[in-house]
Design brief:
2 domains, 6 helices, 149 residues, mainly alpha
């Protein structure tokens, strides 16, 4: 395995660690507002503002011509993010942080196997094998064990 710097490994770990906190915060926001979609909107508005300020400070504003060349596929990431935030705000508080995140991880890994296998969305092609399927099966077994508790 090639050398990967520790900060590059720590960053996704930190992002993953913050996901259940984000789900809890958005769930509380949804409860305060009595609306999952309003909570998701506020979450995205705050994130959009933060990214706008960072983008402006870095002077990385894309040219209009570059935006016009994007396909529908490029724009879909925001819709997927909105779906996740709304789902987290709705389901997270109802099923609990541990089960919610176990299900999220299972979904992420199942999609990751497909993305790698087919080389979709710009990922390097890496065929499915027994070890990958066994790892997913262990995650599903973990979900079953969490549900039993």
């Amino acid at each position: 395995m090639n050398h990967i710097s520790s900060w590059l490994l720590a960053l996704p770990f930190l992002a993953g660690a913050l996901m259940p906190l984000q789900a809890g915060i958005n769930g509380q926001l949804a409860r305060q507002l009595s609306s999952v979609f309003s909570a998701a909107l506020i979450s995205f508005a705050v994130g959009t503002l933060a990214l706008l300020l960072i983008t402006l400070s870095q002077r990385e504003i894309p040219a209009f011509s570059a935006l016009r060349e994007l396909t529908w596929w490029h724009w879909s990431g925001g819709l997927l993010g909105a779906f996740f935030i709304a789902t987290a705000a709705f389901a997270g508080p109802r099923v609990g942080a541990l089960l919610f995140m176990a299900l999220v991880i299972a979904g992420q890994l199942a999609m990751a196997v497909a993305l790698d296998h087919f080389g979709w969305a710009g990922f390097r092609e890496s065929p499915v094998n027994f070890s990958k399927i066994a790892g997913l099966a262990l995650i599903v077994a973990g979900i079953w064990m969490i549900r039993r508790a």
